[in-house]
């Protein structure tokens, strides 16, 4: 099987997808189905890289993926909420401004 076939089969297994645009980064939150028919999350961060000097027309992206399985959801969400609360308690970013704009990321973590 070549890489193109892998990419096509990867896209076919997406059951649900949400995109979060955040400055120079885009986050993809995809629900996929495993071979044994269990649902899991695939979280992808995509960041556009500067064009190379050799070929300024080339656009490339750096991507990082995390796969999160159902048995880990509660632990992951608790840790994420704890980390966000810690940042908020230290005078971090004022997320209330985002709530007013209906930012979907904040709706996911609260």
Spatial separation of the terminal alpha carbons: 42 Å
What is the count of DSSP helices, taking H or I runs of 4+ residues?
Answer: 4
Unreliable stretches (pLDDT < 50, length at least 5) are 1-9
Query: Briefly, what CATH class?
Result: Alpha Beta
- Provide the β-strand percentage band: 35-45%
| Most strands sheet | 4 strands, antiparallel
**What is the averaged pLDDT score?**
80
Cross-sheet strand order for the largest sheet: 1-2-3-4
Q: What is the general shape?
A: flat
Q: What sequence of helices (H) and strands (E) makes up the elements?
A: HEEEEHHH
- Structural class, judged by helices and strands? alpha+beta
Q: Give the helix proportion (percent range).
A: 25-40%
Which CATH architecture is right?
Roll
Tell me the Rg in angstroms: 17 Å
Count of structural domains: 1
Descriptive report:
The protein is of the alpha+beta class. It has a single domain, classed as Nuclear Transport Factor 2, Chain: A (Roll). The protein is 35% helix and 35% strand. The chain contains four helices and four strands; from the N terminus they run αββββααα. It has helices at 3-12, 73-89, 96-100, 104-109, and strands at 14-22, 25-33, 39-49, 60-69. The chain has a four-stranded antiparallel β-sheet with strand order 1-2-3-4, covered by helices on one side. The model is unreliable at 1-9 (pLDDT under 50).
């Amino acid at each position: 099987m070549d890489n193109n076939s892998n990419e096509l089969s990867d896209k076919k297994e997406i059951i649900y997808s949400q995109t979060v645009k955040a400055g120079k980064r885009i986050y993809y939150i995809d629900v996929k189905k495993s071979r044994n028919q269990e649902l899991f999350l695939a979280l992808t961060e995509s960041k556009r890289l500067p064009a190379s000097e050799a070929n300024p027309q080339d656009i490339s992206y750096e991507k990082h993926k995390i796969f999160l399985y159902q048995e880990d959801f509660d632990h992951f969400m608790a840790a994420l909420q704890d980390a966000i609360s810690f940042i908020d308690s230290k005078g971090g970013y004022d997320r209330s401004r985002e709530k007013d704009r209906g930012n979907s990321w904040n709706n996911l973590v609260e």
